[in-house]
Amino acid sequence: MIRPKFNNTSVTVIASIVFAAFLFLLPTGFEGALQFRDAVKCKALVEEVDNSRIIDTGLIRTGQQVCSVRFLNGKFKGMTAQGWNMLTGSLSQDKFFVPGDKAQVVVHWQEAELGEGSEDEIGGSEGKIEFLSVNLIDYYRLKGELILAIAFAVFLIAFAGGTGVRSVLSFVITVLTLWKVLVPMYLKGYDPLLCGCAVTVLLTVIILSLVYGFDRRLLSSVSGALLGIGFAAVLAVICTKTFKIHGAVMAYSESVLYSGYEYLNLTRIFTSSILVGASGSIMDLSVDITSAVNEVVKKCPSISRLEAVKSGLAVARAAMGTMTTTLLLAYSGSCISLLMAFMAQGTPLYNILNNNQVASEIINTIAGSFGLASTAPFTALMSGVILAGRKK
Questions:
Q1: Which residues cross the membrane (predicted)?
Q2: Does residue 20 belong to any structural domain of this protein?
Q3: By residue range, what is the domain housing residue 317?
Q4: What is the pTM of this model?
Q5: Are residues 204 and 349 in the same domain?
Q6: pLDDT by residue (tens digit) across 78-112?
Q7: Please, which residues have CB within 8 angstroms of residue 335's CB and are 6 or more apart in sequence?
Q8: β-strands 54-57, 102-111: how paired?
């Protein structure tokens, strides 16, 4: 009887799939918000619009946009109704629909008694369904997002084969862990810094095990990555306290407080977000160095541990030159509009550097860069010691 052979990578993939399925089914405890509990969510086609109730003052539009919509799926598929799009004057939040747009709508309705009738009742001559409200929430983007995600997964798998499959799996696990574990723990009032550290360690072990399986390379890369993440966490705590940065600099953080979660410590959540954000680049650097040293050892099994460490340090120096710039560009890109506003208003540089939002991005960049700087030599050291010197 021939039995299938499983290597370390196969076992890791199977375990990761099981873990991903568990996360997918895991309830967060925050399902079913009150405003959506008795509503039906569906896709609708905007057929006509009435802009007569909109007040237009140049860039700012306020008022109500009345839209005639036809439902494209769900319980009311094929029916038409009158929907409302509320404009508050916020360019970042408001939507302005035109005929032909597809919208995500939230419908509140009730069963009407026979014989009743109004212009909002749909359902044939009986008039059984009465739409209480039809609110246009946003443009319908789910189909495009799904196509984009599938294309990304197909490209990875076609280009990298089994490695691409593991990359997609690590991507899915990361998304599910952040949404199903980290965010609910924040909202439930657990210590954000401890939660961030625990989740980051978990993700580091899972992602790197998908790369290497359970062997010496995993030990080398994980040890280097965890050291860098720990260093970044310590520095983030010190800098956040020293620079007196309040966690409200995070987008939408005040909205969370006003939603009934006033007990949250936004500053510690901000500090936790720094190490979570830096962990990706740190893992990347640890994998680069570990893989480079492993290739050197494979090509030259007789290499000494000292020479392997020197090779790892050479790779580390080259990689650090671009990794720190990667962090800088990533964080700078997220606040480019803020920098444009400062320049357009002629704000002096010393005022810009003292701004709390700019200071928070500086902490993000510097803390992450210090994490990379500590990861590189330690990973090189661990890779040389663990991977080399075993064969003469």
A1: 6-26, 146-162, 193-212, 218-240, 327-346, 366-388
A2: no
A3: 189-387
A4: 0.84
A5: yes
A6: 899 999 999 988 888 889 999 999 999 988 877 76
A7: 357, 358, 361
A8: unpaired
